[in-house]
Design goal:
Blueprint: H1 2-8, H2 20-36, E1 40-51, E2 54-57, E3 63-64, H3 67-72, E4 78-85, H4 88-100, H5 102-131, E5 136-138, H6 154-161, H7 163-167, E6 170-171, E7 177-178, E8 182-191
Antiparallel strand pairs: 1-2, 1-4, 2-3, 4-8, 5-8, 6-7
Helix pairs in contact: 1-5, 2-5, 4-5
Length: about 220
Amino acid sequence: MKSEVLRYLGYSKSNQLPDQSTAILIKSCLEEMLEIQQVKSTYRFFELAKADKQLNVSGTNLTLTSRDIRRHLAHSSLCLLMTVTLGHEVDRRIRYYQKSDLSRAVILDASATASIEQACDSLFKDLELELLPERQILTSRYSPGYRDFPLEIQKRLVETLGASRSVGIAVTATSILIPRKSITAIAGVIDLEHEVAPSTCIACLKSATCQFSKGAKR
């Protein structure tokens, strides 16, 4: 996870390394993150009903009209909705350091971003193990705010999963998740034999200017 923290901090090249004091601070922040994070998640699988230019999540009032999400789920008749959060203490600790130790606040924020991504990846691996006996796997996860998948759908995803009650996630009037270090996402379930091109930063419209881009890496 340290390499991801370095990437979020702007050390995007292999020959870019932090000085000794920064390296020590990064190690300390990673240790603190492990102490204070309270990873919680909730998820459900839903059938998809496909109609002209939209996808309906069966059993809910959730309709997906994004062109990119329809393409992403084109080979799926079943989808996964998920939310993951690190909990409120992470937010509180970052706010505290923003007033008392800005360098630590920045590095702890990067550590939290890497940690929430790792938590999502871990949940994905567990769910794919459950799907393997059916010879199925998951597509990559797709979150509100990616390409033309509107950020405003956050509230509907949280409501559909009952995530406010089960894991304590709220959504602001501007569609920001609280706690901030939380993620909502959707993924498709596909047959193991079905080949899907890996999702990489190259496909993103901001790839050329994004300082966090992984390039051709997934």
